[in-house]
Amino acid sequence: MKTLLKNIRECSLCKEHLTPNPVIQVSKKSKIIIIGQAPGTKVHASGIPWNDASGRQLRKWLDVTDEQFYDETLFGIVPMGFCYPGKGKTGDLPPRKECAPQWHQPLFDNMNEIDLVLLIGMYAQKYYLKENAKKTLTETVSNFEEYLPKYFVLPHPSPRNRFWLQKNGWFEDSVVPILRNRVKKVL
């Protein structure tokens, strides 16, 4: 695992497209794996995963402290793209497609204490659920129980998703309490 993490942190697969600065947090003993999109600008600059407004919201949903969240034996953070992908017209660009096929399976092969994988957003859900993902993120998240006990599907906790959260109040009312209970059991 040590060599694998060193290789990931030194990765430059997509240096022609962006400035490499892979952000990852994982241990052989990680119990909950968080698979999101890719680091944003703040995380890219700090090198600390989910160290932004999205991360604060995610920790609130999970009902965990910063200390718990950043304990790599509890939470492994393995994004779809390890580096900030750059700015697009309406937000950040999608995660680069090179990372997950190159690094995810070797990482999972080195972790044998995983109890739960959180798939955050459509990129992670489509990649891992494949044909079992529904047509839309809303449909996938509203059917979250289909993917348990291995996967728990979530929308992205970004402040940009506030309209989705307002429109889909059932998520925070009904799904988040189940998520918190599942996380508590694992921890």
Structural features, described:
This protein has helices spanning 2-9, 41-46, 53-62, 66-69, 99-109, 122-129, 137-142, 162-167, 170-186, and strands at 32-35, 75-77, 116-120, 151-154. The chain is α/β, with parallel strands linked by helices and 187 residues long. It has one domain (2-186): 3-Layer(aba) Sandwich (Uracil-DNA Glycosylase, subunit E), CATH 3.40.470.10. The radius of gyration is 16 Å and the shape is globular. The protein starts with a helix and ends with a helix.
Give a quick precis of the structure.
With 187 residues, this protein is α/β, with parallel strands linked by helices. The protein has nine helices and four strands; from the N terminus they run αβαααβαβααβαα. The protein has one domain: Uracil-DNA glycosylase-like domain (Uracil-DNA Glycosylase, subunit E, 3-Layer(aba) Sandwich).
If you average the pLDDT, what whole number results? 96
- Integer-rounded radius of gyration: 16 Å
Q: Which range best describes the helical content: under 10%, 10-25%, 25-40%, 40-55%, 55-70% or over 70%? A: 40-55%
Number of domains: 1
